[in-house]
Amino acid sequence: MLVWLAVVPTVAMGVQVLIGSSRLLRESQHLREDVVAGRQTGTPLYQLVIKMQAERAITAASWSGSPVSGTELRSRRADTDRAVAAFLRSSDPGRVHADRARHHLQEVERRLAGLGARRERADARNGSPGDTVDYYTGVIHEAIRSYEDFSHVDDGGLTQERASLVSLFSASEVVAREDSILALSGPSRRLTAAQFTEFIEAVGASDYLYDTIAPELTAGDQRALERILASDAWKTKLRVERAVISEHRDAPSEVLLPYGIREWRTADDALAARLNTFNESGLRELLAHADERAAQLDRQVAVLVAAGATALLLVVVVVVLTTRSVLRRLKSLHDRTVTVAEETLPDIVARLQRGQTVGAEALPQPQGEQDEVGRIGDAFARVVTVSVEGHQKLADERRGFGMFASGIASRTGNLVSRQLALTEHLQDTFGQDEALLADLMRADQLTVGMRRQIENLLILAGGEIPDPHTEPMRVADLLREAAAEVEDFRRIDRHALDEISVEPGVISRLSHLLAELLDNATRFSPPTSRVDIRSQLVAGGLCIEVEDRGPRVTEERYEEMNGRLHSAPPYSVLAENAHRLGLFVAGHLAEQLGAKVTLRRSVFGGTSAVVIVPGEHLVDTHERGPLPDPAPKPASVRRPAEERRPGDVPRQGAADGEDGLAPTGSGLPRRRRKEPVGPARSAVVGAAARGSRVVSGRPALPERVPQTHIAEQLREPRAAASAGQDAATPEEVADAWADYEDSTRQAELELRQDQP
């Protein structure tokens, strides 16, 4: 852009010099053309005017009966013919650029074409003497008017000089008209009233023109004109004019002139010669001045071109140097700005979001430079400082709100845990009533959902879910625990394809992440469809896939949802999506675990959520230590809803409190697994497990034993197999389930191989 700022003024200046030079060259060329046309046409035209004036006077005198010899008349006409021939020979209206001047010249040529016929009529005395005089006057008038518009160059000095010359031509023509009017009086000295009025007007016009022309002439021309006006001939002219005006006598339809008019002819011949010489000199001076002006314009063009080229070269040098300097500094400013925008500022914002402090040395500092580029850099540094201060304030507010939300979640979690303990106590107390037990388990399931929402608040506030587990958990148990957190857990099919365990520190967070994905899958798929959750070892760790049969989702929608999973949104985005926080929670948990969650289209048309758990969180199941001996106090393990049984009751007076709750590090309590009491250990309501299919892993719930809640008299003797089954050790049960899992996994692999 700056290159254009340098190029445009340079080109504009060059164009301006070119346009100015072209204009001056055109004016010079037009002036030279006008000078040539003036010499070829203007000079012969004025000679024609002089000869036409002389022929008009002698023709008027001959018509009025004055003693005019035929030789003198023919001589005057011959002079006029030579002037006409010279004019027609040199005149070329096409070479005159001014349209009006060209029109006047063409009109003169048209009128001259009738000169012979007019002479014949005058000789034959056809018509009136006034018409003959008016013919000559018309030709002279058109010729003088052509001088008014002869030049088409807008030059003030030449225009003024041309106007003065045209005024001199008009003044001498007025004097010549006076001569022709007095010639019409003849020996009788009689004029018609119209002719006398025309003479009076001509006298006034002559005096006016010479009085107004004199101040506009040059000093030399003024002195020459003053000599003419002070001559005896001019004085005689004035005396005759005053005599005619003051001493005339009016007669019916005519005017009788005084005897003094006889002096007019001699004075007019001398005066006309001097005026014509003066006018011709003025015309030659005008052409010479025009020629000088054309040469001056040529010199101006040369000076303008030379000065313009020099200035243009200087401007180009200055612009190039300035532009290079500005571009170099702007590039440096751009590089610093890009570095701050792409590296420094994001790093500072990330540090602020992590709760780290940022010192002033990490920010760009104003340099205090005074030029424009330096001030821009200082302004940007101040903008960055203000932006960082704003992010610092937002980070402090977010951190404060997170602490506040964590406190609220902790307190609410305590209440929910106590509610769960109370619900469990009611299940143990009134477990014999199947309808009431079903409602209690429903309430228990809803309470578990409430606890998960509270944990969501804790996660989004920046906290972590405390994990009370001290032993690794098998993946099959982890899947069952995650499914138990979902309200519609009966629709979930679990498939643990590999025997592996998860380390204790991530069990709660991974279970919560899977519970959020399962909850979304059950809520956004038809209520009659199944939801599959599968786990399998892959090269990068453990792959857990949640697949539903929900509606089709566009690729743009998948991109939006994956964006929620891969970036922590600000509170404004959370507020706009308060009813869809599951993906945000899953994204936070995946970030804490170092896992990767991706949503994609399932082969069944629904959505498949793939979770890749890093191998660092996995342990081999066979490497776990022996099962711990029963202790007086049970281990604090998070217990899913499917494992709570009516026979489990809280221990009164336990070391952890009356409600059997084990507070965690953040204050959020975790439920402990209760030891079974009495024979109700095997009498579990099957409503919580009938819809859940177990392909591998431990059974969701033991099978319910018939006749547990009927009267003693109606009970039938239990089969011996039940007693034998109850006598099995935990190791025998684990071995049996391991064989079952191996058989199931082998069958699934064979089914997959058979599929196309």
Automatic annotation (TrEMBL):
The keyword Acetylation does not apply. Residues 98-125 form a coiled coil. Pfam families: HATPase_c (PF02518), NIT (PF08376). Residues 732-741 have a biased composition (Acidic residues). Residues 43-293 form the NIT domain. It comes from the Bacteria. It is an enzyme of class 2 (transferase). This is histidine kinase. It comes from Streptomyces glomeratus. The lineage of its organism: Bacteria, Bacillati, Actinomycetota, Actinomycetes, Kitasatosporales.
